Structure formats: structure tokens, C-alpha cells
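#dry-run=false #mode=assembly
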Amino acid sequence: MQYVKIKDAIVEQIESGMLSPRQKLPAERKLAESFDTTRVTLREALSLLEAEGRIYREDRRGWFISPEPLRYDPTQTLNFTNMAIAQNRQPRTDLLSAKGILTTKQAAQLLELQAFSDIYRVDRVRYLEERPVVFVTNFIRPEKFAGLLDLDLAGASLTDIYREKYGVVYAKVKYRVTTTSLLGDVAQALRATSGTPAMMVERINYNQHGELIDCDIEYWRHDAISIESIAQLER
Amino acid sequence: MQYVKIKDAIVEQIESGMLSPRQKLPAERKLAESFDTTRVTLREALSLLEAEGRIYREDRRGWFISPEPLRYDPTQTLNFTNMAIAQNRQPRTDLLSAKGILTTKQAAQLLELQAFSDIYRVDRVRYLEERPVVFVTNFIRPEKFAGLLDLDLAGASLTDIYREKYGVVYAKVKYRVTTTSLLGDVAQALRATSGTPAMMVERINYNQHGELIDCDIEYWRHDAISIESIAQLER
DNA sequence: TAGTGGTCTAGACCACTAT
DNA sequence: TAGTGGTCTAGACCACTAT
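#status=ok
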């Protein structure tokens, strides 16, 4: 299995420090030549490295060494920005759109609503050191947040707005983690090639009165995240 | 992008119920012919379906439709067997080996031990409906479990043995979820091809007195698992 | 504009599986 | 034993990126 050997050779170069985070690998044709193989086999090796979270691909730009993943605790209220700063990372968030829509099937199910209910939908992309790492869609029940869309959603975090303008805080969260692949708009926003493997985190959030408030669907570049948490077990 | 269209065509067949869980897809050469393409392109489409968790591959045996994933809550003490039964699945566990070893680097770190400490290592494979879905390695601090290796580890769950023979229960767990790929022994035990994408769950377990007891490293077929939990948020 | 990655073709050989 | 999946070769074209 040639491609495993090529993978190991590249891993060694990464671990020896010859290749550092964010650095671009040489062109596929050059790598293939240097390992005396074809592009197809070389790409097998690169896909393996991608699956292991050691490198990532930017669509049509090439392959890059992955930095350390962000440690992400879905049971903390800590928002992305504060979480990143606490880990000495440089976060940024782009607001893509915020609008009222009729529920999609997926959103209706997550929010426990009838089909075609009115909800808010907010799409954002979050960056670490200017690399897009997660595409987040929030579906929000509008009852408790009248006028939300008129506020400056680009300038403040949703959790801050909830708390400061509406007196709502998250008190309970139901979350689900699965693997999937990036396609279409989501792939594009993350500068990913269609089909790039990814991690999906779905969260359903409840307020201090146990009422369902909103949900968010997060598509993460899987090399950029490590989900970590601590739980006290009940007996 | 031909391979996305092929993928969509197969998804449609799955969703229409023409293909049912555990069923084998036709041979790659036949599928390629029926979509009027080559094996390379067809395999692009199959890899996409694999990344989405809709199909899985058994090494040299072919591609199969994925059943529903097992819902897995890492914050519950519930062991694999009871979890599976509660979801109307048919679990089985194979004990591969149980022995005393000197810590590996990874185990030493997780168990907060010096290099070359004595620990127990238990390797098991767990099945659902006779399909191997997870490879589990337990690293166990031996102090609290004298004579553990002499017990019938194949016949009872570790948590049951801990509780019944040693009066030890899990009270706190630290866990971490990342993606990786299957290689070597682990791949083989799961009937997977080298490089198959997978989900890794690491758990570090503490007893009722807050002492570190053991850790386990789980390599899951990623289509076989959906990690789900509920958390009360502290403020 | 030169070079690159994304995608695809059309094969080949071999060890293994299914029967 | 027939057929299959795993792996690999040696190309090709094109739209896009980097400069």
C-alpha cells in the first residue's frame, strides 16, 4: 500500500517540524513526482491525511497543514468568540444573512413547530485566523424576540443580544454530533471542495423557563474542532 | 460534477426504499456501467455516500446500506449492551485481549501516569446485528482492581465487574470526540479498509471519590453512531 | 499568463471473497 | 473457480488561482 507509506512520510515531515501549521504543501504534480507515483495515488495519501485531520484543502488553492483544533464544549454557554480568545485564537464572524422565513422540514422538526410556521433564520461563517472553520445556521422562534432582525446582528453575538435585549439566557441544551460532508453553499462559504468530510453539530437550546428558544446547525471543518466536555453522572 | 449526480441517484434509491439497510450494492463494475462511467468516478460517488454515513464498506466485500445509527450518550453510565437493547438493537461484544502492560505514551497521558507504569489493557470489538461497529481499548489503573485479569471479562461488562466485585462506580467522565481514520489492527477488526474515516471517542472516567479509574478509546464506524446528549448549563 | 487543482477516462494486476 | 474490490498507471481537459 504505497499511499500509506506516502502518508507516513508526510506525517513524519509534519511532526519533525519541517512543515508548520497553515503552510501550503507543494503542488500535487510535484509531490507525485517526488514520491515517484501518479496524482491519483498521491491524492489517496492526501485524503488519508485529511481524514486524520492533519491537513485540509482549500478549493482549488491546494493543501495546507492543519493548526491545532479548537476545543469546543457544547455544554458551555461560552460563545465562539470568547471560546476562541480563551484559547489564544483570533476569531471573526461574518453575518451572511438574517431574515424571516417559513420553516423548512428540518427546522420545523428541531423547533417542534408546524410546517410553514414563521421563524427567523440567521446564517453566519466563523473564522479562526482568517480561515473559515464553521458554517452556522440559527433557526429562531420569533415569539420571544420581536424585532430581532432590526438589530445589529453583525456587531454582537446572538447570546449577548438575547440576554441584553430580551432577558433570555440558555439554561439547557440538547446536542447531537455526527459526521457528514460539505456540499453547495456551505462548502463554498468554507472554501471547501464539494464532498469534503465534516462534523455536524446540532444544538437545541432552552431558556431558563425550559422553553425551546432556538436551534443551531453547525458544519465544522473536522480538523478544526475537538469536542470536549465533562459530565457528572447521575445514578 | 458527475459524481454528485450519481450520488444523488443512489440517495434517491435508498430513500425510495428500493435499497434497505444492510443490503449490498451491486458490484462496482456493474454500477459504473449502469451510470455510464468508470470505476474511479463511481468510487468518488460511493466515498461521498460513505462520508455522509449512508453506506459503509466491508473490506473486499463491497458496499452496504447503513442502518440507523445508534444514539450514544457519553454522559450516561449505561453500557453498550444495555444502550443497544434499549434501542431494539442486537449487541454482542468480543473480548480480543486482556493483559497487563507498560503504559504507552498515549495511555500514560490519559491516565496521568509516569511512562512505563504497569496498567491493564483490555481490547474489545462490539457488534450490532453481527456488524462490528466499534473497537474499544480500555486502559485501567490496576491499584483498585487487583486480580481483574483473572475474572471472566468476556462474560460480563466492565462496569458491572467494577461495581459488583470492587464497589467502584463511574461518577464523572471527561470525554473528547474527534474524527480520524481506521488503520491496521483496528481497521481489520472492524472489517474496514485502511483509511476508512471514523469517529474517535476518548473517555476518562472517575469514581465516586473523584479518583481517576480508567480510560477508554473507542474507534467507531462513523455511520453507526450519533452522539447525543443533554446538558444543564451553569451560569 | 503560467500553473494548479477538480474531474474524468480507460485501462491493468492481484489477492481475496463467495460459492 | 469466477468475480470482486484494492490499488495503481498514464494520461486528458478545463476552469480557476496566483502573480
